[in-house]
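Table 4 source record.
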Amino acid sequence: MLTPPPMPSSHPRHHYTLTGAVDKPFKFKASCSDDHGQNTFQPLHKDRASVKVVVDPKSNLLQHLQPFEPWSAAPTDFRILIKVKGSIEHISAGGAV
């Protein structure tokens, strides 16, 4: 596990050196752009019913979900309590709304 040193508020993050295996220091290279040289966009398949999602039956991380029962349209006048921790930067990029 890599743990950066405590960050003074005036110190830019990109100046940090991390300590890796066998105490060898290194820095990540900054990204130049969002273009990684690959076209990664994949539009939705026109016939979505024919798309098969393959999940290894021995997987401990993924599983197929069973379809949910249809909503009964019962009254929804109940309260929901939601606890949120974070700041506006966690919700939207750079605090932009």
